[in-house]
Write a structure and sequence with these properties.
By secondary structure, the chain is an alpha+beta fold. It is 22% helix and 40% strand. The radius of gyration is 16 Å and the shape is globular.
Length: 154
């Protein structure tokens, strides 16, 4: 398969009137659904985690670099502090979902992200997620200038 035809498995950055954001396509498989073929509620959390991880990757802030200490002053990771979830409509097996991730707010050590999941342009799920940068010992760390700039531009 040529490079031009290879799928963008990390999704893509996009931009609209409210700024830049990340879009990740996700296919719903049998394992993502309940017995009725409807997406199981916990699957949305996994889909959003993939979106957040690939958003960071495309911003140049990879999880491995954080954990190794390359991307911050010491080994660190983003951990979820709070999630607010809203289930709007059911998605079903074989649907192609689009997970969008946007920066809503930057704090000293935290980032608030707004995530939506759509099917064919129809919103089926929303999440507001607060992640905090913490050391491997669990101590909150201030966002580095490099991380802050990446999110500001994202």
């Amino acid at each position: 398969m040529s490079a031009e035809n290879w799928p963008d498995i990390a999704g893509r950055m996009a931009e609209d009137e409210s700024g830049r954001f990340h879009r990740l396509p996700v296919r719903v498989y049998f394992e993502d659904t309940d017995a009725g073929g409807v997406v199981y509620h916990a699957s949305y959390v996994r889909f959003c985690e993939r979106g957040r991880t690939d958003f960071l990757r495309l911003l140049g802030v990879e999880a491995r670099q954080l954990i190794s200490g390359e991307a911050s002053n010491e080994p660190a990771a983003f951990v979820v502090r709070r999630m607010s979830l809203e289930f709007l409509r059911p998605a079903r097996m074989d649907d192609l979902l689009i997970v969008e991730t946007r920066v809503k707010e930057l704090g000293g050590a935290s980032v608030t992200l707004a995530q939506t999941v759509t099917v064919g342009g129809v919103k089926v799920f929303e999440a507001e997620v607060i992640v905090v940068l913490v050391s491997v010992a669990g101590k909150p760390l201030r966002l580095t200038d490099a991380i802050r700039v990446a999110f500001d531009e994202g």
